[in-house]
Amino acid sequence: MTERVLELTGLNKWFGPVHALKDIHFSLNRGEVCALLGDNGAGKSTLIKLIAGAEQVEDGQLCIEGEKIPTHRYTVQQARQLGIETVYQSGSLGEQQPVWRNLFLGRHLHNRLGFIDHKEERSQAAQLLKTLDFRGVGANIDAPVSSLSGGERQGLAIGRAMLFDARVVILDEPTTALSVGEVEKVLCFIEALKSQGRACLLITHNMNDAYRVADRFVVMDRGSIVAEYRKSQMTQSSLQMALLDAVGRGA
C-alpha cells in the first residue's frame, strides 16, 4: 500500500470574482496528523470542503492512494466511499437519538432480508464505545446524544469515522468551547486515529492542541499555502513565531 493517502495538485477555487484557493499543493500520509493553521478567512474551511466533497473542485487534481479522482463527479457520498470522513465542529449528530443510532445515521446495516439490523448495530456500537473508552453516560449506547458532554459528542463523531474505516479523517475545530478535561479526551481520540494508521487533517486555532498531536503544520493565508513545518524541526514557541512570520510576509 502506498504511504501517501491524499494528494492535491494545482487546486484552485473561485466564488464569483473571488479567488478563494490559489494553486494548492497538499498531501497527507498514512498515520500522519497534519494541523492546518491560519487566521479566519485564510481558506482552511474552503479547502476541507473541497476534500470532503461539499464544494466542487473547479481546477486541479485530486488523488486518493495514487488514484486520480474525476473531480466533476466528486461528492460527499463519493468521498465517504473513498474513505474520507469529516467531523465538523457541530458534530452533525441527532440530539434526541440514542448513541447507537447516531453511529449508523444514514448508513444503516441491513440483514439478509434487507431490513435494518438493529441488533448488529447495537452490538457494534457497544464494542466501539469500549474501544474508545467511553465512561459514565457516554458508555450507554441507549443514552440520547443530548445527555453527552462536548468531548463525548466529538468522540462519538470521531468514532463514527473509525467505524466506517476512514482512511482520512478531517477535524474542524474539534476542541472549541470544551473544558480542559474534555479537550484531553478529544486529543486522545485523535492520537487513537494516528495509532490505527489513519491520516488526520486537523483545523484549529489552538496552538497547544496543534503542537500536542500534529506531526506537521501547514499554514494558509488568503487562499494560499504560505509555509510548512515539521514538529521535529521546532519547539512550540518557535512554531508560534514562525506562524506569525509566515502570515506577516503575506500581508
Automatic annotation (TrEMBL):
The keyword Cell membrane does not apply. SMART domains: AAA. One of its GO terms (molecular function) is ATP hydrolysis activity. It comes from the Bacteria. Pfam families: ABC_tran (PF00005). Transmembrane segments: none annotated. CDD domains: ABC_Carb_Monos_I. Residues 6-247 form the ABC transporter domain. Keywords: ATP-binding, Nucleotide-binding. The keyword rRNA-binding does not apply. SUPFAM superfamilies: P-loop containing nucleoside triphosphate hydrolases (SSF52540). This is ABC transporter ATP-binding protein. The lineage of its organism: Bacteria, Pseudomonadati, Pseudomonadota, Gammaproteobacteria, Vibrionales.
